[in-house]
Each structure stands twice: as structure tokens, then as C-alpha cells.
Amino acid sequence: MSDKFDVVVIGAGPAGYVAAIRAAQLGLKVAVVDAFAGKDGKQALGGTCLNVGCIPSKALLDSSRQFYNLAHNLPVHGITVENAKIDLKTFIGRKDKIVKQFTGGIGQLFKANKVTPFFGKGKLLKGNQVEITDPEGKTSTISGTNVILASGSVPIELPFAKFDSKYIIDNAGALDLTEVPKRLGVIGAGVIGLELGSVWNRLGSDVTVLEALPAFLSVADADVAKIAAKEFAKQGLKIKVGAKASGVEIKNDEVHLSYADKDGEHVLIVDKLLVAVGRRAYTEGLLAENVGVKLDERGRIVVDDHNHTGVDGVWAIGDAVRGPMLAHKGSEEGVAVAEWIAGKAGHIDFDTIPWVIYTEPEIAWAGKTEAQLKEAGIPYKVGTFPFAAVGRAVAMNEAVGQVKVLAHADTDRVLGVHMVGPGVSELIAEAVVTMEFKGSSEDLARIVHAHPTLSEAVHEAALAVDKRAIHKGN
């Protein structure tokens, strides 16, 4: 007879572990099955995000920024440093220490909330049974009244550029390079490509990013993308749009990458190639044939508005289902599902989920872009304000970028806020709160913002919607 739980979660990433903790808080008996192993071979809770994604990449971004500032930003403050060097072993070691701290922290949270972890790969069987295959290949079975599938996602591999961990790498490989490559090629100018490209560019690598789409950062607001592209070019990032990669050859310890753009066929020669063309739902081996859970044409688990699969007691959340592949989206789905299971009113609003790219400058947005509003025929007003007119930003020597507020032309309800500049990963929260409470640009404009702060850019952009910004000509 297998162990019986109220909830069994397969996957301990930001969606799965949060769902488990919330379910346990609500008095349910919870188990989590996860196969992610750290460098020491032991279970490392936290999934891609904590182990090889969100957290380690931010650690490297911060460390690389400190190094970059020595030569590029500190001299304007009257600070000069001669012959600054990077100790890559310490650089990577700091990242590993942070990862271990947080993955271990989840283990402590599980212990405090009486969540039972199982180390191994989970497979859903009929009748809400979960088969666990441990690292040694041994199998056991547990069961749950409810099963939450939170298997996450994996990098998309190109057929002509398969990962070999030496020359052609994914995001995990780019976090563990043992030396700074003289030349780094990146396929894909999305979040992963831009962030990891920025890390190694700051450390001295000659980075070229190829983007197949004709426009740079097309998911973001066009004005924001334009400002960001200009700044990345100043930093030395070479970004080529409309560049479609087609083949890779390894010659003399070099990667020869073939691609085509409007000017014809080309070959880019680099020392390392990072393939960052996106991620796909990870569902291999997750489902037995007869369980009834369906997958869509992209391999994602099909769910309804409440993240239920249609199979009694089986739910799915995070990167393995529809919607943006964002850690915070998965976490909120996890909370909502745990609350629905417990008979409470779970909630998640997909229209107010913030997006952030942690480059320099940072990029963040929530809600609709101007292009989306035009396409939908929604009347709107626009207010913008540059960080160049914000005293705090100028004092920090980080005055690049702007805040853009889009409000309904008739109701004044805020429909979207788009930012590029210093600290916007934090500033976007104010916009999300405003939209979640159906607020207007007038609401933002009437709220007192401390001076001098970066948040004044949000205030003035809201004022600018009705052409009454104080520190900008309207």
C-alpha cells in the first residue's frame, strides 16, 4: 500500500514548492517529488529558477555589473581603479553559494511546514498514483487525493546546434563557464540571451546576439525596446535582428555559425555559442498513457481557467501550462490551486503579471503595449517621462530611460505601464497595484511620491497623460 497524501506535487520549482507550502499552511498533508540535483549530487529544491535560472543569473549580473562599473561608471564620480581583475573562480563560487543558500532554504521551509520531499522523477499513474524513480533507478509509489503537475520547462534545442556543454551551451552552461570567452555568440535576443550576453560582455567578451525576428524585443513596448537597443549598442553588445541561424560547424576549437539576414549569407565565428531561443514545457515521462491528461500542440498540459486538467483531482501550474513562463506567474498559480483544493477562493489575474529583464538599463512592463491597444481598437492616452529629468537618477549617473503610462481615453483606467531605466524591476510593482485595483492615471498622479526618488518618474508620467507633468514640457 502506497503512502497517501492530500496533495502530491510533482516538481519543486517556484510553482511547485509554493503550491506545496500554501497547501500545507491550509492544513493539508503534502508531498513533493523532484529530481533536480545540485553539483554535489544531492537533491536541490527550487527547480530551474533557483538552480540555473532566475537566482544564479541575477547573482552573475550583479557581480559583473560591479566589475563593469569600475571602468565605465566610477570615473565620473572621481573614483579610479587601476588594473582591475576578475577572479572567475570566486565569481562563479559566489553564485553557487547563493544558490545553495536558497535551495537549502526551501528544504527548511518544507520541514517547518511538514511537507514531505521525495528525491526522484515523478510520473502520474491512473487513480492519482505517483510513481517515483530515484537517482539509482529504484521505484516506489505514493498517492494523492489531489496531484499538482509542476514539471516546469527546459531549453529549446535547435536541430543544427545541439548542446554539447563545450562549444554549444544552454543557460546552465553559460552560468558555469570556466573562463571568459573572447567571442560569444548568442542565438536569441530574449530575456536569457540579453541577460547572459550582458554578463559576459561586461567581463570583456565580444558578444554578438542574433535575433530571427525583424524587430528587437517585439514583446515589449516599441519605445522601450528602442531605448534599450541603443544602450546595449553603447555597451558593446552587437545585436543583429532579422538574422536567421541555419547551421553550425566546429572547426579548430571554434564555432562557425551560419546565418542569413537582409544582406545575404554570413558566417559568425565564436569560441562559445549560447542557444537561447526559448523554453518548452517539460512533460517527458510525466504522464502514464492512460491517465487522461491532455497536451496541446506545444506539449503543454491543457488546463481550464482554474488550472484543472479535467481529470478528477489533477491540476497543473507553472511553465508546463499556458501563459508566460515566469517564476512569479507559476508561484501565484500554485497559491491559487492550493486554495481551490482547500475550498477557498484562489485568484490570479493574468492581465497584471509584470515582466522584467534585468539588463542595464532594466526593462519592465505590465499590461498592454501601445501596439496591442491599437490592434484592439481601444482608445487610449499616453504619458511619458524621462529619467534624465529625475534628480535621483541623475545623481546616480543612471539617467537613461523613461516611464510610459497608457490609460483609457474615456475612463482613464491604466491599461499598461512600460519602463526602461534604473530600478524599474522594483518600480513596476506600483503600476501592477494600480492596475489590479482598476486605478486611473489620475490616481497615480494624485499620490504623493517622495523626493528625490526614482518613483517620481512614474508620478510625472501619470501627470503627463493629461499633459500636466511639472518637470517636462508637454
Automatic annotation (TrEMBL):
Alphabetized UniProt keyword annotations: Cytoplasm, Disulfide bond, FAD, Flavoprotein, NAD, Nucleotide-binding, Oxidoreductase, Redox-active center
All copies of domain FAD/NAD(P)-binding, residue ranges: 5-334
Positions bound to FAD: K58, G122, D319, M325, L326, A327, H328
Residues that, per the record, bind NAD(+): G188, A189, G190, V191, I192, G193, L194, E195, E211, G278
EC numbers on record: 1.8.1.4
Catalytic residues (positions): H451
Keyword Nucleotide-binding among UniProt keywords: yes
GO cellular component: cytoplasm
Cofactor note: Binds 1 FAD per subunit.
Class in the EC hierarchy, top level: oxidoreductase
Reaction(s) catalysed by this chain's protein: N(6)-[(R)-dihydrolipoyl]-L-lysyl-[protein] + NAD(+) = N(6)-[(R)-lipoyl]-L-lysyl-[protein] + NADH + H(+)
Gene Ontology molecular function: dihydrolipoyl dehydrogenase (NADH) activity; flavin adenine dinucleotide binding
Names of required cofactors: FAD
Disulfide cysteine pairs (residue numbers): C49-C54
Subcellular location: Cytoplasm
Pyridine nucleotide-disulphide oxidoreductase dimerisation domain: residues covered: 353-462
GO BP annotation list: 2-oxoglutarate metabolic process
Family: Belongs to the class-I pyridine nucleotide-disulfide oxidoreductase family.
PANTHER family: DIHYDROLIPOYL DEHYDROGENASE (PTHR22912:SF224), DISULFIDE OXIDOREDUCTASE (PTHR22912)
Misc. comment: The active site is a redox-active disulfide bond.
Name this polypeptide is given: Dihydrolipoyl dehydrogenase
The organism of origin for this protein: Frateuria aurantia (strain ATCC 33424 / DSM 6220 / KCTC 2777 / LMG 1558 / NBRC 3245 / NCIMB 13370)
High-level lineage: Bacteria, Pseudomonadati, Pseudomonadota, Gammaproteobacteria, Lysobacterales
